[in-house]
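Please review this one.

:::
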Amino acid sequence: MPNKCFSIKDDSFSNGILSNHQLSVRISGGTLENAVFDVTRNMIVAYETWALNNNEDFSNFKDSFDKITNDSFVLGWEFKKVMVIIDTKIYTLIPDKLFVADEARQYLELNHSSTTNETICVDNIEIISSKNIYQVPCGVEKVCRQTFPNFSFCNTCSILIGSFLKINPPQETVMVNFSGKRIDILVSGNGMLKFCNSFTFTTAQDIIYYILNVYKKLGLDTSSTPVMLAGEITTESAAYEIIYRYIRNIYFAQRPVNIKFCEDLADVPAQMCFDLFNSFL
């Protein structure tokens, strides 16, 4: 059964008057989060998160979603626009010049097992002239089509890539995004994406192994190439401690500077919800 972890809303937020509001819903194996963006005020005015505890099994997603909707002050209303973010490691990047739409499933199956029951979606990542091909669990797709009259899917890494490169760090930079028991590692340099992959971990030692292996493969210097941390990590995390032991030049990702956040969101660390909040840009 899903458990509510966090819930805030601005005093100005009013259910039912949402014609100028956008909703982003992020679904992973362990959590469901949503945020509401007031287009008129250019502000995120609501945020909720639940623990799903389904271990990537979405066969009973409808039951969980129904319980969440009954407990939510956001879901169940009609919004101007809805984005459903699929947070998964099952994706494949293909350059535009090589992409053939009819072969999308075959591209994905080069790197991942897939079933005919899963829906294949494609994001256009203009900043790197590439497509991101990923699958949406059939249970999730069915619920979304029944719930949201005007929605689109997007993969987490599509948002991470676009947001990371738009920050345009002045030097080669490694980004590590934490989501449950998975990390996404991206490397940028000269405004280009040099690396993007996702890894499942069990311990903090696994995390630093993957990061240092990326440094080695790309010939990066741990004393000079910085790491930007995003997602579910804080200074109290074991992951932070072990990363700092090997790479001293680390810092946390910040929120988008060109949108506002309601006051209650000050309690949420800036690096959290990096993909969710950047989905409104």
In short: The chain has two domains: 3-88+135-161+256-278, 167-252. The two ends are 33 Å apart (CA to CA). DSSP finds seven helices and 15 strands in the chain. Residues 119 and 136 are 5 Å apart (CA to CA).
